[in-house]
């Protein structure tokens, strides 16, 4: 069991920050995977998005997250 | 003292404290993004992420939590390694099939006890200071 550190953690962060508007507009309400500074998987489930990404880039651990709808970003939690 | 500064995500000039974290599930680290929510008692993720982490919900501690509309949702709690930048802590993470918002929440339990966290909404920067 490798608990040393996650592979590729931080690698795509800046790309996600710079492209967040596009992600919300294009994929709001769905899960996306990002690897190698590109959207590498989109699906209605996190597992589905991850599997699509790993099929495309088998050796890259993707960032997988739910992309909020625009309305979700104005919340009163 | 370890100080971590992370930029907010920005959508149409509105800044949201959404940051990358890594969670260690059954056998490996998984990377995701979370909304840091000082008003949430617990961190709550969707059950989608539990599946991705290889967790069996029935092995978690089942509790009920009240949400913004006054309703209650079931949450399954696990203690998992959580990494923010290069700092790893053991954090209680809940998973719910009825998380009604479009992102995962990083709440206070364990996280706010192990870090002092400053929200700078004007600059759009979150600062984590490891205790």
Question: Which characteristics define this entry?
Answer:
heterodimer, A: alpha+beta, 3-stranded antiparallel beta sheet, 19% strand, B: 131 residues, Cathepsin D, subunit A, domain 1, 2 helices
Give an account of the 3D structure:
- The complex is a heterodimer of chains A (77) and B (131).
- Chain A is of the alpha+beta class and 77 residues long.
- Chain A has helices spanning 13-18, 20-27, 46-56, and strands at 31-35, 38-43, 63-66.
- Chain A has a 3-stranded antiparallel beta sheet with strand order 2-1-3.
- In chain A, a hairpin with a 2-residue loop joins strand 1 (31-35) and strand 2.
- The longest helix of chain A has 11 residues, at 46-56.
- The N and C termini of chain A lie far apart (37 Å).
- With 131 residues, chain B is mainly beta.
- Chain B has one domain (3-130): Acid Proteases (Cathepsin D, subunit A, domain 1, Beta Barrel).
- Helix content of chain B is 8%, strand content 56%.
- Chain B has helices at 47-52, 111-114, and strands spanning 3-7, 9-11, 14-16, 18-24, 29-36, 43-46, 61-66, 72-84, 87-96, 104-106, 115-120, 125-130.
- In chain B, strands 4, 5, 6, 7, 8, 9 and 10 form a 7-stranded mixed beta sheet that branches. A 3-stranded antiparallel beta sheet of chain B has the order 1-12-11.
- Chain B starts with a strand and ends with a strand.
- The model of chain B has no long low-confidence stretch (mean pLDDT 92).
- The interface between A and B is large, with 38 and 35 residues.
Task: Summarize, please.
The complex is a heterodimer of chains A (77) and B (131). By secondary structure, chain A is an alpha+beta fold.
Order of helices and strands of chain A: HHEEHE
* Subunit organisation of the chains: heterodimer
Average pLDDT of chain A works out at 87
Tell me what the CATH architecture of chain B is. Beta Barrel
Q: What is the overall silhouette of chain A?
A: globular
Helix content of chain A: 25-40%
Strand content of chain A: 15-25%
Q: What structural class should be given to the helix and strand makeup of chain A? A: alpha+beta
CATH homologous superfamily of chain B, by name?
Acid Proteases
Termini separation of chain B comes to 7 Å
Strand order of the largest sheet of chain A: 2-1-3
What is the total domain count of chain B? 1
CATH fold call of chain B: Cathepsin D, subunit A, domain 1
Distance between the termini of chain A: 37 Å
Poorly predicted ranges of chain B (pLDDT <50, ≥5 residues)? Answer: none
Please indicate the count of domains of chain A.
1
**Helix share bin of chain B:** under 10%
Largest sheet of chain A: 3 strands, antiparallel
Q: Topology as H/E string of chain B? A: EEEEEEHEEEEHEE
The counted number of beta strands of chain A is 3
Structural class by SSE content of chain B: mainly beta
